[in-house]
Amino acid sequence: MDQSLVDSVRTASKRAQMVDLEALIRFIFPTELQHAMSTGRLLAFGFYGPLDADAKLRSGHKGSHVVGRWELDTMCRQFEREDILQVYMPDGKSSSSLSAEESEQLLAQADSRLKMAKGKAMMRQVTEEEVRALFDDLEREDGLLMFHEMQERIVEFRKESIQRNKVIFPDLISHSLGKKKSTGRKPAPRPTRSNSKTGGRVSADVAPSSMFLANSGYNPMELATQTNRLLATRAYQICDIENGNSPALTANVRLVRGACTPSRPENTQHPKVWDSYCAKRGTHMGGFVKSAKSSTTAKRSTTIV
Asked: I need a labelling partner for 156 at 20 to 30 A (CA). Which of 5, 116, 288, 296 fits?
């Protein structure tokens, strides 16, 4: 084979892997959409790119099919679902191991700060400035970027975004797009037990030091016995018949306060206090709701002082 032909094929193949950043911006932020799902479009480009000459994503045999907007929306929603589920998965475990019912429950109970986007999207969407900053330090050849380098950067960006969303208090961490900002100040030393006034992990105003003592309190068997006792005596106060076997009762029943026994006033024949059975003691009446005349109302006039 002619060497010039081989060189031309290699050049054309390499040229096909080069991406114009402005074309990518037009794909992620189309002018006809007010709230484009930019994060999902960025991930779709990273997994199924590069783009054609018209800044369109293609699929099918030899790229004969142009991916439509409705197809991109479906892909973006799937990316968002996977990212939200992955936030609540342990490290090294994929969200694909969850059943459909478990996935829907996690999505419904996900933190509200993850679902704060406008338009069709659920999660916060990247801006044009963030996309440009993502590829700002990559090498360019004739003003074009290599697709494989961009793909690696997008995969890294997705992993860092998931790890960032796992933080309970993100406002306490000063970093953007996985890059930590330097403030020029030394971090404050962490308090130790030697310089703590109470000798505990937190102040006594927050929790008593007895909460942090080792080898104290219930053992696992005693804790299970206590939980079963609470389920048998207090679970009815926080659930209905349909949800009587809900797993959440095991944790929530421990938060139910004990019933307060009202004191009976002395030298009072008919104390006006309700008991746990919703009846007044000493009146021989099951209720005091106004009703039509009956044998019960005739008895009421003789029992109530």
From this structure: 116
